[in-house]
Design a protein that fits this description.
The chain is mainly α. Helix content is 57%, strand content 3%. The protein is built from 26 helices and five strands. A three-stranded antiparallel sheet has the order 1-3-2. A two-stranded antiparallel sheet has the order 4-5. It starts with a helix and ends with a helix.
Length: 470
């Protein structure tokens, strides 16, 4: 149960669940205290990051100014150098965002919140490499998604849809009166709320696109020239902008309901309408069931849908129905770990009590297994089905990652000064694995007895079906 709800068992996490009892431990995970403390060395790393010290809007504006300045350099060689420096700085911002996210995955006591943060990042997928999103992706995760990962779906929906990273990714900054771009509207209806085949029409897409006109991103410090009436409706939150001069103020009808509002409130009301639809409740409940138990049984999804609607989309309440279900209990131990879960659980178990200094190898392993953070190019997010991650080629890569995690991994403990302090995990003497040994399959138990060294024992353990499933 602990393995299913967290990013992987550790001795400390299992002890906490046993001490509190399963029911109380799950309740704390569903309603986690804020904030959570991370290891001191990890906290220090996060505090030193640029994305922690500067507001996202300031970073995005500074990077935009840097790019424009580079493009205006007349000398070709100097311009090339300046553009290269811009790309290096943008890559550094993405690396910081990735490292901070993985540090929380590894060390936060609020493990369900971290799993749900990934789930929602995948549901509201944004690829960091597009345009200047690398300057925004850390804020998108840390300030828009994570605080709302177990709250009301309506609040999460608004935070995600109005974030500049999402507006950039789905090109809504190009959606304006007279030049309608349906891209973002279609994904909101199809992927983020109602779901495929839920009954919305092409007319609904067109109407939603009109609602979204004027909502975009402004990374300059200038504000548009507006009339007095437009000025009253103008909204700017950081680099998110609602520009009334670009908005279609005509009447709109979505799902048979007139969408009203004054300026940006029109979009907020439209999202509110979509968040409370039974189709949305069913779509979200089905995805949650698929993510946590590998299946979407109709009876369970119906119970979760009813709870969603009765609690105004309270995500923790919907998950509570899922975790109390017989389907959840029956699924324990039978689900295949996807790349994120496999890699994080292996590092959490192998290096418990020794916080890593460098998240780079961890990100590399996750990317090698095909599920890199912020790397999915299409808005549908990574597949949640086990079958997608169980092919022979995938397993070969998993064994390769197991080999590296099982042995000395100096890269995990490389600090900025270049010091290396590799450490060999001692899984064979782990109290958690020792207590689980009687439950290992006969094949795993036999194989482990054939290990010729501690590192080989580690590798065989991390490659075994008993560890690959949870």
């Amino acid at each position: 149960m602990v393995d299913r709800i967290t990013w992987g068992e550790t001795n400390e996490t299992v002890s906490a669940a046993e001490r509190l009892g399963a029911s109380r431990w799950i309740q704390i995970q569903l309603r986690p205290p804020q904030p959570t403390a991370l290891p001191q060395s990890v906290e220090a790393q996060i505090k030193s990051m640029r994305i922690s010290k500067e507001p996202m809007a300031d970073i995005a504006m500074a990077m935009d100014a840097e790019l424009k300045s580079a493009n205006h350099i007349q000398d070709a060689g100097a311009r090339q150098s300046a553009l290269k420096a811009y790309q290096v700085a943008m890559q550094a911002l993405q690396r910081e965002a990735t490292a901070r996210s993985l540090f929380y995955d590894l060390y936060s006591a609020n493990q369900l919140q971290e799993r749900m943060t990934w789930f929602w990042l995948n549901h509201f997928n944004v690829q960091a490499e597009k345009r200047d999103i690398r300057a925004m992706i850390g804020d998108y995760e840390y300030n828009a998604i994570r605080p709302r990962a177990l709250g009301k779906f309506r609040d999460l929906l608004l935070a995600a849809e109005l974030h500049p990273a999402m507006l950039r990714y789905l090109d809504n900054d190009q959606n304006r009166l007279g030049h309608i771009n349906e891209n973002y509207a279609r994904e909101i209806l199809e992927l983020h709320t109602l779901g495929v085949g839920s009954g919305y029409s092409q007319r609904d897409v067109e109407e939603m696109a009109k609602v979204l006109t004027g909502v975009g991103v402004n990374v300059s410090r200038e504000e548009p020239q507006l009339t007095a009436e437009q000025r009253r409706l103008y909204v700017r939150r950081g680099v998110m902008e609602f520009n009334p001069a670009k908005h279609d103020f005509g009447g709109k009808v979505i799902l048979g309901r007139e969408v009203s509002g004054d300026g940006l409130a029109e979009l907020e009301n439209a999202l509110d309408l979509l968040a409370r639809q039974p189709a949305t409740a069913r779509h979200i409940s089905g995805k949650l069931a698929l993510y946590f138990i590998g299946d979407a049984p109709p009876g369970l999804v119906q119970s979760m849908t009813e709870r969603f609607l009765a609690t105004d989309g309270d995500i923790a309440e919907v998950l509570s129905v899922l975790f109390r279900s017989s389907e959840f209990r029956a699924s324990l131990g039978g689900k295949l770990k996807d790349p994120m879960h496999y890699t994080l659980s292996a590092v959490r178990l192998a290096y418990e009590g020794r916080p890593i200094d460098n998240a780079g190898p961890l990100q590399y392993w996750i990317e090698r297994l095909g599920e890199g953070l912020y790397g999915r190019s299409t808005p549908d997010g990574y597949p949640l089905e086990d079958a997608y991650w169980s092919g022979p080629g995938q397993l070969i890569n998993v064994f390769g990652v197991a080999h590296q995690i099982a042995a000395h991994v100096p890269g995990l403990f490389n600090n900025d000064a270049g010091n290396q302090n590799p450490v060999l995990p001692q899984l064979r003497s782990s109290p958690l694995l020792t207590s689980r040994a009687p439950m290992f399959s006969a094949a795993t138990s036999t194989t482990l007895t054939q290990a010729r060294s501690p590192s080989e024992w580690n590798e065989l353990m991390l490659s075994s079906p008993d560890f690959l499933h949870y």
